[in-house]
Specification:
The structure holds two protein chains of two kinds.
Chain A: E1 4-7, E2 10-13, E3 19-25, E4 31-37, E5 43-51, E6 54-57, E7 64-66, E8 76-78, E9 87-94, E10 103-104, E11 108-112
Parallel strand pairs in A: 2-11
Antiparallel strand pairs in A: 1-3, 3-8, 4-5, 4-9, 5-6, 7-8, 9-10, 9-11
Chain B: E1 4-5, E2 10-14, E3 19-21, E4 24-25, E5 32-39, E6 46-52, E7 60-61, E8 64-69, E9 74-79, E10 88-96, E11 108-109, E12 113-118
Parallel strand pairs in B: 2-12
Antiparallel strand pairs in B: 1-4, 3-9, 5-6, 5-10, 7-8, 8-9, 10-11, 10-12
The chains are: A mainly beta, B mainly beta.
């Protein structure tokens, strides 16, 4: 089955620690995205990537970093500079065609210890 | 100004009845797309329906239809014959054409409407 796999499902971060959220897709999509969702809110874009080895900041990139070394993978690192990281993180991918939807993973819930 | 406005934080509907979830948008682009997603309590985002700004017909997908009124900049989702499994958050999202050249197939999301279906 084609889809997007995010891991882990739940993650806990200590003060001053960097943590990495995994996102893998086997849909052969060129574009990948990371969103943050806070309780009762919509999704806000953190980073996106249209092709391998290229990525762009979204609306709330501060305190986060990404890499795109392979088409299938787009990991997100939440750095210690992100002072309020507790949120639900969703990864998505899409074809680079304007009328095609983004497909989402099941999300990672990050909490502070 | 918000690009996507969903004015109904919560809605209730009786099972088997139809319900309309409101979405208004703000863009100066001529070419854009509107998407609706469903998010159950488990968290995954499920794509429901798409409407392009140049599409002449309102989009339909099974029990879902999109009431697209371009002049009013509204793209309301209509769910017919509601089922208990329709209880979820529903998000309206927009892809603006102008940003596509800047490398963006990215979406801007509204804050969502929580739909509860009553037996």
């Amino acid at each position: 089955d084609g889809g997007i796999t995010q891991s882990p499902k739940y993650l806990f971060r200590k003060e001053g620690q960097n943590v990495t959220l995994s996102c893998e897709q086997n849909l052969n999509h060129d574009a990948m995205y990371w969103y943050r969702q806070d309780p009762g809110q919509g999704l806000r874009l953190i980073y996106y990537s249209q092709i391998v080895n290229d990525f762009q900041k979204g609306d709330i990139a501060e305190g986060y970093s990404v890499s795109r070394e392979k088409k299938e993978s787009f990991p997100l690192t939440v750095t210690s500079a992100q002072k309020n990281p507790t949120a639900f993180y969703l990864c998505a991918s899409s074809k680079r065609v304007s009328n095609q939807p983004q497909h989402f993973g099941d999300g990672t819930r990050l909490s502070i210890l | 100004a918000q690009k996507i406005t969903q004015t109904q934080p919560g809605m209730f509907v009786q099972e088997k009845e139809a319900v309309t979830l409101d979405c208004t948008y703000d863009t100066s682009d001529q070419s854009y797309g509107l998407f609706w997603y469903k998010q159950p309590s488990s968290g995954e985002m499920i794509f429901l329906i798409y409407q392009g700004s140049y599409d002449e017909q309102n989009a339909t997908e099974g029990r879902y239809s999109l009431n697209f009124q371009k002049a009013r900049k509204s793209a309301n989702l209509v769910i017919s014959a509601s089922q208990l499994g329709d209880s979820a958050m529903y998000f309206c999202a927009m892809r603006e054409g102008r940003r596509a050249g800047a490398g963006s197939y990215q979406l801007t999301f509204g804050k969502g409407t929580k739909l509860s279906v009553i037996p």
